[in-house]
Amino acid sequence: MMAATGMQVIWLSALLLAGLGAVFAAVLLAASIKLKVATDPKVEQIHAVLPKVDCGACGFAGCASYAKAVAADASLIGRCSPGGAATAAKIAAVLNLQISEGSAPKRPIVHCRAVREDKTFYAAYRGIEGCTSANAQPNVQACAFGCLGFGDCVQRCRFDALHIVNGLAVVDYDKCTGCGACAAGCPRGLIEMVPFTYEPMLTVACSSKENGKTTRAMCAVGCIGCGLCARQSDLFAVKDNLARMDYARYQPSEATETARQKCPTKVIVFRGRGASADEKVSKTPATTSAVSS
After folding, report:
1. Element (H, E) at 87
2. Torsion of Cα atoms, 194 then 199 then 204 then 206, to 10°
3. Which residues contact 221 (CB under 8 A, 6 or more apart)?
4. Are residues 121 and 83 in the same domain?
5. Cβ proximity of 243 and 205 under 8 Å
6. Which domain holds residue 216?
7. Where is 170: in which H helix or E strand?
8. What is the mean pLDDT of the chain?
9. Looking at the domain assignment, is residue 267 inside a domain?
10. Over the stretch 94-143, which tens digit does the pLDDT of each residue have?
11. What CATH number did the domain enclosing 52 receive?
């Protein structure tokens, strides 16, 4: 028998490898068919209508996780803050459900409006540039309840929706998704996730619990707990020397506008889309529009 030539060996090897490749491919195909996990088409349809920002405001790791969860539990409809009411309606349509009007989407409000010129400082802070570090030091600024302005909240925001303007954290509501990361990042708890029943939203932009005389000495625009707002509208109440507002019940009215105008320190202001970026400028509710969800 004649020995195989080099070319024949190469061809035989190639054919053998091709045959083995075909066998392995067939095995993998059979395994993938047998082990394939069926995907609920509703999950894919829900994921398609989500904004794909993966902000985590819904309480899940991302849009894909939320799509899977809401497909299994329709009570989770409405948790997508970036998508708002429109997305909730689309999810309900995929699930062949009708949804009733629920709670308003939550957006962050910074309960402070004091810029550098409004604050009293005891000394210049020379420590680590961060609110958490500054908050651990006594007497960084006179008001222990005011915005420190070092931007821990800005660093938490993934959407460039927060900036420090003249020592004050200011929200860009056109970019904000309502994820709540900024609220978690404020060491003084000044940022609250508030239901925006209307936009722009009326708010008490202060957190000070000092008495009126002390507040005036520390801040030019702080709440002095005078109660004038509460006497104009039952949406306001004063507790611990601080005016508070029932945001869930807010509707623009003559009473709330009078309360805003009568506030001696002008601490009742509008926040949200349509409100001035300058926290010192107020806005009448004439162009306010309802936000439903």
Report:
1. helix 84-94
2. 70
3. 113, 114, 118, 205, 206, 265, 266, 267, 280
4. no
5. no
6. 106-290
7. strand 168-171
8. 83
9. yes
10. 888 776 555 578 889 999 999 999 988 766 777 788 899 888 887 778 89
11. 1.10.15
The Cα angle at residue 264 between residues 262 and 265, in degrees rounded to 5:
125
How far is Cα 14 from Cα 149, in angstroms, rounded to an integer? Answer: 70
Rounded percentage of the chain residues whose pLDDT exceeds 90: 44
Q: Looking at the 3D structure of the chain, how many domains does it have?
A: 2
Q: How far, in Å, CA of 157 to CA of 155, rounded?
A: 6
* Last residue of one domain, picked from the residues 94, 114, 136: 94
Summarised one tens digit per residue, pLDDT across range 195-237 is: 888 889 999 999 999 999 999 999 999 999 999 999 999 999 9
Q: What is the DSSP string of 245-293?
A: E-GGG----HHHHHHHHH-TT--EEEESTTS-SSTT----GGG-EE---
Domain contains 10 = no
Q: Is residue 117 part of a domain?
A: yes
